[in-house]
Structure formats: structure tokens, C-alpha cells
Amino acid sequence: MKGPLFYSKILLFGEYGIIKDSKGLSIPYNFFKGALKTDQKHTDAAIKSNESLHHFAVYLEKLQNDTPTLATFNTEALQLDVAQGMYFDSTIPQGYGVGSSGALVAAIYDKYATDKITVLENLTREKLLTLKNIFAAMESFFHGKSSGLDPLNSYLSLPILINSKEDIESANIPSQTVDGKGAVFLLDTGIVGETAPMVHIFMENMKQEGFRNMLKNQFVKHTDACVHDFLKGDVNSLFGNVKQLSKVVLDNFKPMIPTEFQTLWKKGIDTNAYYLKLCGSGGGGYMLGFTEDIDHARTALKDHKLEVVYNF
Predict the structure, then answer these.
(1) Which fold has domain 183-311?
(2) pLDDT digits (tens, 9 = 90+) for 242-260
(3) Beta pairing class for 183-188 and 6-13
(4) Cα dist. 296→121, 189, 266, 293 in Å?
(5) Measured over all CA atoms, what is the biggest interatomic distance in the chain, rounded to whole angstroms?
(6) Where along the chain do its domains lie?
(7) Radius of gyration of the chain (CA)
(8) Crossing angle of the two packed helices 100-112 and 149-156, in degrees rounded to 10
């Protein structure tokens, strides 16, 4: 894969909550990556990607005509490259909550935006917000509604701290402990998830006052505490808050947890061997796990594939 490369991301905390102004913390995950490519390899994946890029190019032309102050693109060059077979060559699994469309959006912006904000600039909050808004508009082609955070993370390859919708900044996260027993891991459900239906369920639930109160008084509260603890490196407090968050999600976000994984989710809370949470919108793909003892978690989850992404 030739450069420039764009990496996957993991939203450690903030899924759904950032829609309602909770804090959030997103980190790059360099295990998966993608790059724009033009060659004569007509694989099924390349052909499918090329078709998608054709529709995306049409969408971007309409976007800049409708909102010229947001961003402008060299759509002629994009359409020409797409006509010559350009595709997004990616190892990022789609529908897994690790930012496959975000990496594609970042790659297109990087190559075709005519007045782009670059990674080398002094990235003020205003510039970060501008980028986030551009990326949200671009990525909504894929999901119907986007926060813009996935492409932002992929474009900058930096941890992003979301304080609120209008307040984001790059963040310093504590260094990993190489031989630490505590870990954040990905658990593969083996099911492809779709973002749009999950977001639709969430938005329908938001019409109920009880759900809105739960989100504000429990979900956002524990999410904000988790972000605070993680950035401070307060591992003991973090696991207490992750456990509470895991309970709240199990009780209130059942449609986002594949049915066959709900028992496994509860088992983690009951035994304290691990705590699961959503990775992205849920409904399949990866789930995110936190454990104070990765060997114990591997034993408890021996029938499942785990990928460690961070060690405490």
C-alpha cells in the first residue's frame, strides 16, 4: 500500500453520547489502514469501491454547489481519477465501528480539497471545528448523519478529545504500560453492523423523556467520568466507571447489542473479568472491552477473538 495512508480509529468513549454533548475520546488505531489507488487490479472489492467513489464524487459536487463556503474540491480531477478506475484499497473492515468510511473521507479531502487545512498547521480549535464540520458533511453520504470525528481522527492521526460539539482539541493520552495486565481490547462479534439503522433507533428513543433523562443523568455522567479517568491515568476509578457504563448500556441500548452477546456482556459485569461497551454504533462489528487482567479475560472469552489495542 503506497501512501498517503489513512488509519482506522477507535472511539474509546462517547458513542451516542457525543450527539448529546457528552465528552468523547477517540484514538487512531494503526492496525488497519487504507489508501487511494489506481491500478489494473480489477478485484470485486476494487470494482465495488470504484462504483461507490463515483457516487461520492457526484455527492461532493452537489455539496460544494449547495454550501460553497464549507469546502471546495477539484471534482473534475476526482471524477477523472474515478473514471480511470481509482478505488480505496483498505484493510479496515466495513461495518465494524473502526472508521472505514472515515478513512476514505480523510483520503479524499487530503487529495482533492482545494483550500485544505493541513496537519502541519497550528491546529487551533477553530480549525479543528472547521475540519470536523467539513468531514461531517462529507461522511453523511455514507451514514445519513455523521459527527465528522472518524475522518478527523484518521486525517490527523492524533487522539481527539471531545469536550462538547463546539469544543474539541487534540489530546495527550498516558503512555502504554508495555507489560501491563490491564487492557483495552476489541472483541470480534463476527457480524457486520450497519450504522444508519442503529442511529435511527437511537433518534427514535430520544423522543421519549425517560430515555433522554437516562442519557443525561447516567450515560453521559459515566462517559464523562471515564474520559476524565483515562486521561488522568486513574485506572482504579476508570474501571469503576466503565462497569457502571457497561450496565447502563446493557439496560438501555439492547438493540445495539447482538442478542447472542447480551449474556456474555452480563457475565463480564457479574464476574468483573471484563466489561464490554459499544464500539461505534453497535449492532455487530467489534465490541470494546476493558479488563484489569487480560489473561483472565482471554480465558473467560476463550471462544472469541480478542485484539489488544492499549495496555495499562
Answers:
(1) Alpha-Beta Plaits (3.30.70)
(2) 999 999 999 999 999 999 9
(3) unpaired
(4) 44, 19, 16, 5
(5) 58
(6) 6-170, 183-311
(7) 19
(8) 60
Residue type, 69: T
C-alpha cell of residue 222: 459515566
Alpha helices in 188-271 (DSSP H): 195-205, 209-214, 220-232, 235-252, 259-271
Three-class SS state of 309: strand
First to last CA, the chain: 31
Q: Is residue 284 a contact partner of residue 267, using CB atoms and an 8 Å limit?
A: no
Does pLDDT of 144 surpass 70?
yes
Report the alpha-carbon distance of residue 155 to residue 135 in Å, rounded.
10
Q: How many CB atoms lie within 10 A of CB 29?
A: 20
| CA gap 79, 49 in Å, rounded | 14
- Give 1's pLDDT tier (boundaries 50, 70, 90): low
Cis amide bond preceding 255, omega within 30: no
Q: Is the pLDDT of residue 3 over 70?
A: no
pLDDT at 18: 83
At 119, the pLDDT band (50, 70, 90 cuts) reads: confident
C-beta neighbour count of 186 within 10 angstroms: 22
Q: How far apart are CA 2 and CA 17, in angstroms?
A: 36
Q: Is 273 helix (H, G, I), strand (E, B) or coil?
A: coil
Report, as an integer, the average pLDDT of 163-171.
Answer: 89
Mean per-residue pLDDT of the chain: 93
Fold of 6-170: Ribosomal Protein S5; domain 2 (3.30.230)
How many other β-carbons are positioned within 10 Å of the β-carbon of residue 119? 12
